[in-house]
Amino acid sequence: MYWLFQDRKQAGEALAAHLVGLGWARRPPGRIFGLVRGGVAVAEPVARRLSVRLEPLVVRKIGAPENEEFGVGALAEDGVPIFSHETMKALHLKPEDLLETSDQKRREAEEKILKYRGGRLDWSRIPRSVLVIDDGLATGITAEAAARYLRRMGVPEIALAIPVAAADSAEALERPGVLYDQVIALERIDDLGAVGSWYEDFSAVEDEEVVALLQRKKAGAA
Fold first, then answer.
1. CATH number among 3.40.50.2020, 3.20.20.140, 1.20.120.530, 3.40.50.1980, domain 8-59+126-221
2. If residue 32 lies in a helix (H) or strand (E), which one and from where to where?
3. pLDDT tens by residue, 46-68
4. What does the H/E/C string look like for 52-94?
5. SS3 assignment, position 123
6. For the chain, how long is the longest CA-to-CA vector?
7. Cβ contact 129:159 at 8 Å
8. Residue 149, burial from CB neighbour count under 10 angstroms (0-12, 13-18, 19+)
9. How far apart are the C-alpha atoms of 81 and 62, rounded to whole Å?
10. Strands 182-189 vs 129-133: parallel, antiparallel or unpaired
11. pTM (predicted TM-score)
12. Where are the alpha helices (DSSP H) in 76-204?
């Protein structure tokens, strides 16, 4: 019987307890990133339990033409897009077909970066390990974009933690030294469907809530 989460906060608390049980409180990561936006709400309880500052990581999904919700690619804070080769092939698409959409997503990412942080992430000191958190894992394209971005920044150890994940996507992302060295999911489900179907409340996380969560963590760390 699979776990149905009340909301992102409860899912984050359950994920935090699981990570503590695995020993992460004794060996916390150097940095914790919540993927904007829903991942920040899940990451806040985790960051609090592990006593690590919570930071937002902006990743934007690139949708298919005439169906923006169907993700065929994604880009992270440095604006380098990645695409699902299988999905692109099935839709008879090439990256050049999505140049305008990719540019739009870069602009959106820049806006979110300024809103949440006021500037780009500081990589003057590269942490030994990073923990990335999201509210769920379906196709895995945004999580992959985040991992590839962190690898380009030189992070040697990257883990992904999510409350619920499509089993095949979690397996595909667990590629030590290339994508994620470890993928931790409270539930791995063969027939996941929509991530939101595993939450009683999967209301959209607004920008104001993200800012409030980040400010709350900063106040607690002060």
1. 3.40.50.2020
2. strand 31-35
3. 999 999 999 999 999 999 887 88
4. CCEEEECCEEEEECCEEEEEEEEECCCCCEEECHHHHHHCCCC
5. coil
6. 52
7. yes
8. buried
9. 8
10. unpaired
11. 0.93
12. 85-90, 99-116, 141-152, 167-173
